[in-house]
Amino acid sequence: MKVVNALGRRKSAVARVYVVPGKGNIVINGRELNEYFKEDTLRYIVNQPFEVTGTTAQFDVKANLDGGGIKGQAEALRLGISRALCEIDKEAYRSALKAAGFLTRDAREVERKKPGQPGARRRFQFSKR
């Protein structure tokens, strides 16, 4: 089987994912998964598509992550892996991934700061007199 690539985005993070059959190695920006994501929760987020589809340790993943914070990057990687698994075998994996909500792109972005106020929605304290 050839290399399957997919794209995952979350907030301002972008994950370019390349999936090939293998032993379950995940390499992110040239570093191992445990080295790149120090927290267990982030590693759990990345491995969720494999657990849902029952394909743990069947595919090797090489990913390029760019932008955003670590949480956004982990969720972008999860979306990219889910899309790649769908491309590999649509009938077997798509229904499980869709039911878990891993194929939906979370489109929420940070709202821009407006002029004349300290944040996007926050206003300066009102003084009547």
Folded structure, characterized:
There is one protein chain. About 35% of the residues lie in helices and about 20% in strands. Strand 1 (about 5-10) and strand 2 form a beta hairpin. The model has no long low-confidence stretch (mean pLDDT about 95). The chain has helices spanning about 35, 40-55, 70-90, 90-100, and strands at about 5-10, 15-20, 25-30, 30, 60-65. It has a five-stranded mixed beta sheet. It is of the alpha+beta class and about 130 residues long. It has a single domain (about 5-100), classed as Ribosomal Protein S5, domain 2, CATH 3.30.230.10.
Rounded radius of gyration (Å): 18 Å
- Shape assignment: elongated
Distance between the termini: 73 Å
* pLDDT averaged over residues: 94
Provide the fold topology.
Elements: E1 4-10, E2 13-21, E3 26-28, E4 31-32, H1 33-36, H2 40-53, E5 59-66, H3 70-88, H4 90-100
Parallel strand pairs: 3-5
Antiparallel strand pairs: 1-2, 2-5, 3-4
Helix pairs in contact: 2-3, 3-4
Comma- or semicolon-separated keywords:
alpha+beta; Ribosomal Protein S5, domain 2
Task: Give me a quick take on this structure.
With 129 residues, this protein is of the alpha+beta class. It has helices spanning 33-36, 40-53, 70-88, 90-100, and strands spanning 4-10, 13-21, 26-28, 31-32, 59-66. Strands 1-2-5-3-4 form a five-stranded mixed beta sheet.
